[in-house]
């Protein structure tokens, strides 16, 4: 039973066990009760149940961001997994996405119509969590912050009522739902703008880490004037994701859109890198729009991880040197992945129709991921994350993108003070009793 027919589950029963599953196994969810809702009506019933039993309400979908959650003592955890398909209105370039859907479903459905979405680098990421927390996508430099592509939400608020929230019906709530830090209710569906895309060039090229001293500066120099149609990530990888490699590798992955120019734009990036050394593996190729979702070859399935995230200004050659010192060959880094995501382009431009997090004032996002397989391994990853953080601190802009925040203990902050106040005002209106208060991320810098 995954519905509220018999009430939410309690620790030890099957309903509870199904609803508390988290994709990050190192961050178990431990609420007082839990339920998986399959419809908006069940989400409404969950809120009634919580109120009747004096519980607060927490929400999740995949639990990918479970390590960012506050403790759930005394809460009812609602897992959204609505029993509806993703549908595409190709004429109006819009997808309707039920909460619970992951990006694989959206991207593959849209691709049948030669349409693309503002998706992340992995197919298993939940659509609602990514969009409500901002979202830096594989086409981010061309399309901007992913949340800007939302056209409407179906939301069940703390009063237990379902409502459709868009720019006309409730502009303040609509803005707050797009990067305002959460705590506004249970999203049951999203209407998302798509864009026409017949083909792109996408993939990942991997080199032995011994070439990183030459490759990282070349990639950084290319980012300075890179076309906005190209969004790429430079990653230093080790562990199961690259078990095929003889050791740690450097990877340049991403996607280039822009029609007939895409192939030559990709060559401008990749030819100088390939001239340094032949890649160990090179999957860059022209393909349909769905291929970009799989290009980063992210390992599938739940994992035990711990991580960190920073937004960085232009790092220049000095920043490259520091990054290599703490993540490159001989650094002793135990991290599974140390990534620099190239931002800028449309990601840096405020969108007049966007939400509270409508752009990102930074040139790069750092995301580090370590194994949390056991306490010793976790401690090593946490310790080294602090070393990376210190090394990159001269370029740290002091804010974060909520979708990339990796732990609730790391410094956060994504809204300026006036936007954080706007989010607070909306919360005070739609959730005056603070039913969803545990779901709120720290909002303003510092
Ligand atoms: C492999 C991998 C790749 C990733 N790639 C990217 C990337 O390219 N770009 C990027 O920006 N981020 C990326 N992320 C981060 C990801 O976007 C965030 O972890 C995001 O929060 C995941 O959303 P979720 O719904 O899957 O996670 P959950 O942990 O289920 O949800 C996270 C939060 O979203 C909110 N939420 C979820 N569902 C609902 C709902 N129905 N109603 C209301 N609130 C809800 C809640 O506040 C919840 O705590 C990646 C993460 C992983 C693990």
Automatic annotation (TrEMBL):
Needed cofactors: FAD
UniProt domain FAD-binding PCMH-type: residue ranges: 27-197
Keyword Ribosomal protein found: no
Keywords: FAD, Flavoprotein, Oxidoreductase
A Pfam match: FAD_binding_4
Annotated GO MF terms: FAD binding; oxidoreductase activity
InterPro entries according to UniProt: FAD-bd_PCMH, FAD-bd_PCMH-like_sf, FAD-bd_PCMH_sub1, FAD-bd_PCMH_sub2, FAD-linked_Oxidoreductase, Oxid_FAD_bind_N
Family: Belongs to the oxygen-dependent FAD-linked oxidoreductase family.
Protein name: Oxidoreductase
Protein source organism: Actinokineospora fastidiosa
Lineage: Bacteria, Bacillati, Actinomycetota, Actinomycetes, Pseudonocardiales
């Amino acid at each position: 039973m995954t519905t509220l027919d018999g009430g939410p589950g309690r620790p030890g029963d099957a309903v509870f066990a199904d609803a508390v599953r988290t994709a990050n196994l190192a961050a178990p969810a431990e609420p007082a009760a839990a339920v998986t809702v399959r419809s908006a009506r069940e989400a409404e019933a969950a809120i009634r149940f919580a109120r009747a039993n004096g519980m607060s309400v927490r929400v999740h979908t995949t639990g990918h961001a479970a390590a960012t959650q506050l403790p759930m003592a005394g809460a009812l955890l609602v897992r959204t997994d609505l029993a509806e398909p993703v549908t595409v209105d190709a004429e109006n370039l819009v997808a309707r996405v039920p909460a619970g859907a992951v990006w694989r479903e959206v991207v593959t459905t849209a691709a049948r119509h030669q349409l693309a979405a503002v998706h992340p680098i992995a197919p298993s990421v939940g659509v609602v969590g990514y969009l409500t927390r901002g979202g830096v996508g594989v086409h981010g430099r061309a399309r901007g912050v992913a949340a800007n592509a939302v056209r409407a939400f179906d939301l069940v608020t703390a009063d237990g009522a379902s409502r459709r929230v868009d720019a006309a019906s409730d502009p303040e709530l609509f803005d707050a739902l797009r990067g305002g830090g959460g705590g506004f209710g249970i999203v049951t569906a999203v209407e998302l703008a798509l864009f026409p895309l017949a083909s792109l060039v996408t993939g990942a090229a991997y080199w032995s880490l011994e070439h990183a001293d030459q490759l990282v500066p070349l990639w950084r120099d290319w980012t300075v004037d890179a076309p906005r149609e190209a969004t790429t990530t430079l990653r230093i990888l080790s562990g199961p994701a690259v078990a095929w490699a003889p050791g740690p590798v450097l990877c340049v992955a991403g996607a280039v859109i822009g029609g007939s120019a895409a192939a030559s734009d990709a060559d401008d990036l990749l030819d100088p890198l390939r001239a340094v050394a032949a890649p160990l593996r090179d999957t860059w190729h022209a393909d349909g729009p769905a291929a970009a979702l799989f290009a980063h070859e992210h390992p599938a399935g739940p994992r035990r991880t711990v991580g960190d995230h920073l937004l960085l200004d232009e790092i220049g050659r000095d920043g490259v040197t520091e990054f290599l010192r703490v993540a490159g060959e001989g650094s002793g880094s135990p991290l599974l992945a140390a990534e620099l995501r190239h931002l800028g382009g449309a990601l840096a431009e405020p969108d007049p129709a966007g939400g509270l997090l409508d752009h990102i004032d930074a040139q790069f996002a750092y995301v580090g991921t370590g194994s949390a397989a056991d306490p010793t391994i976790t401690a090593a990853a946490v310790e080294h994350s602090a070393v990376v953080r210190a090394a990159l601190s001269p370029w740290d802009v002091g804010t974060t993108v909520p979708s990339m925040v990796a732990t609730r203990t790391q410094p956060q902050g994504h809204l300026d003070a006036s936007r954080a106040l706007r989010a607070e005002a909306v919360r005070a209106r739609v959730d005056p009793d603070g039913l969803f208060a545990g779901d709120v991320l720290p909002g303003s810098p510092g």
